[in-house]
């Protein structure tokens, strides 16, 4: 299987970490008799030779040996090798390889880019050897049989032959997990080949009905939803819920075949799989296919949360996460049901519920009673004296519930305070006022010359700033005067201190000399903004802010200066030429900040609205800043209110994106919706 491997000049090739001389070791490791070595080798192939989907010359040179390994019937774990080959061929880059021919450029790829040439050559190489996959459809290893169908559909050049073979295998296959993979492959075939895939769609329709077992019917419904939603049954939701409950009643979890527990990435991922991974995948597929049909998805989640089976309820909680993050809807009922899971005896279910409630912020309010009960019943979970704030407590505080205050007070009484505590307190609003003296006390205990000075002080300063607790001025000045110049992240610390002083406003009058000293340093823009909030001396703050408008972009100075000038209003009129120049910046955040300041300083919408319209379309993340200014503009912002109305009518969250999410995406989207409504109200 490794014939000719030593004749390849691997040392002249590269992978993600440089010289590829170690690739033969990885390839041989895939054939090791030891599971640890096989998984380590597969880790290495993904981590270096096919790093994050990249294809190098060493990746191309590996393909023949990977196919040889896949064909060795006695070798364990070949399913992972088949999946690796499919990934190298571009299986993750899109659903339709038929959109472009073998020699055509992929949309978005640069034909002059050698990396794109590598991807094209990889696709061609996998297709040229795809006949090997035909021999593996009936392989003795179920993991191989499960991995092969999608690879065949994507890369074999005889679709009718492939479809006939897969339909035949579906009739003969006895392993349920493989049968489910075959059903998934029928859906993939239908999505890739459109009208010519009618036999695949018809087969899916037939699989949705009795006498097929519930799991297979659920899989078929999920695939049908993705490729032919018009063929779904009218009673989809009750049908799915009924199948889920029936499957749970029949499903008795047998102990999985014993596998060596390894400390590789793949081994760790295996241990993180849900208790009913198959059930999770069935629901994940269906939810993804239903997309914006939020009413159906909510009903499915609520039905699943009524199951007697803990794993079903756990899967429902995890499924809700994607729904909440991506789509806008009325979620009070499913959130309340998720809150009910906090009383479960099953640790994994409680963990899932807290994980989802944690990123919902105010949308978690329907579960607040359950969260509060959990927090009150388990003081050990608060995070006192640890580096991490207790997640139930954090979720309760983020929801804005004042019942989090006593527990947070206990956390703050310990010398070691989780860094997120100060940021979390900001979500409680005025209810957090009793915590201000404790925040001050903890800030006073922050060492002046520690590598952790900034990381410990910044969250506390944020909390004190949101509470506008000017009584902490001595502790703020202690850090400002006492932190040594060589301190790690000193500039960031000074900016955080300046922001806190600005939040204190006139109550920070004693800090005026210190802020004036900062007007010529790296933190001049932040200090000037704070000084304006404290003293309102335009003559003192305008020169450093004007200088910052023209400073280097990567310092963040221009944006900070623009925001400060906007707060000055008409007093910043001398900065209008500089703001107009910044409004033409190539950096969208700078343009948006400058346009907002132009309105606040001049009250002229003409140079502002075109910038807002372009920025809105270019980067969804700036929409919050834009709508905040539109609220201040009132009727003057009407020419761009079409953007606001379209946003309010959109069912999708503005930050929703494939392949990832931010921890505060839901919070920011809910804030955006509030700003949009306020902007329209302000213009009426």
Shape: globular
Strand order of the largest sheet: 1-2
Instruction: Tell me the β content.
Output: under 5%
Share of residues in helices: 55-70%
Protein structure class: mainly alpha
Mean pLDDT: 91
- Which regions contain 5 or more consecutive residues with pLDDT less than 50? 96-112, 252-261, 268-273
Report the sheet with the most strands, covering strand number, pairing sense and barrel closure: 2 strands, antiparallel
Helix tally equals: 36
Distance separating the two termini: 75 Å
What is the C-alpha radius of gyration, as a whole number of Å? 30 Å
Number of strands: 2
Note down, in words, how this protein is organized:
- The chain is mostly helical.
- It is built from 36 helices and two strands.
- A two-stranded antiparallel ribbon has the order 1-2.
- Strand 1 and strand 2 (18-19) form a beta hairpin.
- Helix 9 (176-193) runs parallel beside helix 11 (214-227).
């Amino acid at each position: 299987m490794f014939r000719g491997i030593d004749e390849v000049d691997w040392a002249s090739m590269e992978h993600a970490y440089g010289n590829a001389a170690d690739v033969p070791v990885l390839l041989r490791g895939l054939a090791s008799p030891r599971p640890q070595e096989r998984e380590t080798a597969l880790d290495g192939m993904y981590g270096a030779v096919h790093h994050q989907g990249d294809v190098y010359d060493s990746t191309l040179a590996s393909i023949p040996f990977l196919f040889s390994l896949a064909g060795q019937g006695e070798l364990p774990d070949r399913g992972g090798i088949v999946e690796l080959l499919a990934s190298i061929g571009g299986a993750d880059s899109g659903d339709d390889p038929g959109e472009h021919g073998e020699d055509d450029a992929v949309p978005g790829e640069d034909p002059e880019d050698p990396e794109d040439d590598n991807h094209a050559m990889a696709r061609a190489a996998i297709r040229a050897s795809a006949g090997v996959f035909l021999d593996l459809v009936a392989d003795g290893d179920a993991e191989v049989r499960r991995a092969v169908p999608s690879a065949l559909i994507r890369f074999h050049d005889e679709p009718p032959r492939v479809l006939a073979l897969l339909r035949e295998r579906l009739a003969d296959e006895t392993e349920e997990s493989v049968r489910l993979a075959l059903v998934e492959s029928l859906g993939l075939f239908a999505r890739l080949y459109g009208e010519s895939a009618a036999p695949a769609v018809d087969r899916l329709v037939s699989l949705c009905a009795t006498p097929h077992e519930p799991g297979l019917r659920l899989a078929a419904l999920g695939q049908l939803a993705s490729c032919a939603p018009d063929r779904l049954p009218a009673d989809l939701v009750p049908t799915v819920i009924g199948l889920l409950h029936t499957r749970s009643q029949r499903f008795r979890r047998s102990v999985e075949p014993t596998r060596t527990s390894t400390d590789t990435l793949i081994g760790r991922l295996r241990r993180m799989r849900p208790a009913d991974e198959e059930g999770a995948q069935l629901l994940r597929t269906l939810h993804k296919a239903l997309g914006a049909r939020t009413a159906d998805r909510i009903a499915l989640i609520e039905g699943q949360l009524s199951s007697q089976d803990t794993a079903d309820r756990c899967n429902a909680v995890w499924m809700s996460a994607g729904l909440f993050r991506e789509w806008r809807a009325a979620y009070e009922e499913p959130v309340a049901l998720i809150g009910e899971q906090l009383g479960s005896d099953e640790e994994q279910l409680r963990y899932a519920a807290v994980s989802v409630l944690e990123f919902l912020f105010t949308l978690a309010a329907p579960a607040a009673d359950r969260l509060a009960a959990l927090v009150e019943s388990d003081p050990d979970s608060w995070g006192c004296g640890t580096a991490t704030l207790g997640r139930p407590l954090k979720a309760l505080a983020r929801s804005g519930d004042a019942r989090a205050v006593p527990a947070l007070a206990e956390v703050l009484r310990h010398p070691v305070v989780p860094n997120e505590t100060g940021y979390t307190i900001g979500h409680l609003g005025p209810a957090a006022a009793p915590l201000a003296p404790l925040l001050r006390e903890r800030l006073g205990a922050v060492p002046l010359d520690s590598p952790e000075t900034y990381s410990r002080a910044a969250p506390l300063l944020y909390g004190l700033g949101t509470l506008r607790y000017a009584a902490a001025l001595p502790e703020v000045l202690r850090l400002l005067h006492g932190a040594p110049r060589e301190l790690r992240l000193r500039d960031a610390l000074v900016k955080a201190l300046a922001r806190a002083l600005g939040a204190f406003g006139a109550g920070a009058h004693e800090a005026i000399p210190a802020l004036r000293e900062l007007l010529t340093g790296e933190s001049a823009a932040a200090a000037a903004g704070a000084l304006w909030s404290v003293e309102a001396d335009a003559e003192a703050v305008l020169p450093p802010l004007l200088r910052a408008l023209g400073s280097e972009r990567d310092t963040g100075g221009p944006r900070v200066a623009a925001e400060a000038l906007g707060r000055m209003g008409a007093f910043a009129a001398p900065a209008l030429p500089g703001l107009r120049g910044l409004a033409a910046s190539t950096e969208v955040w700078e343009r948006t900040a400058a346009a907002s300041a132009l309105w606040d300083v001049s009250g002229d919408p003409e140079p502002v609205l075109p910038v807002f319209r372009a920025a809105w379309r270019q980067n969804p993340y700036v929409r919050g800043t834009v709508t905040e200014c539109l609220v201040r503009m009132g009727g003057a912002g009407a020419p761009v209110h079409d953007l606001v109305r379209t946003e309010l009518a959109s069912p999708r969250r503005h930050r929703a994106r494939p392949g990832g999410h931010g921890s505060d995406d839901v919070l920011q989207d809910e804030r955006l919706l509030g700003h949009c409504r306020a902007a329209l109200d302000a213009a009426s």
